[in-house]
Amino acid sequence: MEENFSEVSRFAAEFSARLAARGTACAAIVRGCLDSTNSEGLRLLRSKSARPPFAVAALRQSAGRGRLGRRWFSKEGASLAMSVCVELAKSAEVMESFTVRAGLGVCGELRKLCGAELFVKWPNDIYSRGGMKVAGMLAELEIGADAAAAVFGIGVNVDFSGLSEGEIPDEIRGAACDLRSLSGGDFSVCDVAAAAVAGVLGAEKYLGRTGGEFEKFDWLKGRRVNAEAGAEKFCGIARGVDSRGRLRVALEDGSERLLCGGEATLKKDWRPAL
User: What is the CB neighbour count within 10 angstroms for residue 250?
Assistant: First the structure.
């Protein structure tokens, strides 16, 4: 697909202006169409064509990926497809907790931008209070001999009001919603992009206090979940996260399990919190 250079230039200029207005020091790289912004971020990082921190946004994304091989819906003007590349200290706590810390940062900045009640569903989704998915995130680490970096992919449903019912994939219809419908606020995709970048870059402030801060955004807290860690499956009550962002699951026998890099889904009888 050919790039619309005028539209790419307009988006890049607006995105950069929004970052500058926030005082956010991050290079903005915009493409018309990409397979995946995470893949492009990794290519730029490995080729040393860009130095962190930088953000890669695409007007259209053909093969955006989420966790467990899932794909992310992308539609120009209706959603944001972006990845933010940042350097990380080479320590287990920093790297292990990064996804949750960055998710906290993004959720907090989106709350401030649009005024909607948004929550983090461990480990890497943003939900409305009623359980509709608003955003998905995927961190991919690049660890070298002397340095480490993360490419943090973010897909956000920004404004579905201009879409016909047929343009929304069957697999997300009724399970996802957009920021505009939640808040009715006046913001653009570039506003959302700049807010998300600020959130990722602000992840460091949660280091050492991830568990306490997560409680303010925790969508699963107190709910019964089905948990999967590799081939092992168990059920329990979600009790927040520890300092490394691992989900704490209270089991029926009174013990507690920590879930890292697995999956936690609600039992079918869940109800939205009042």
Answer: 15
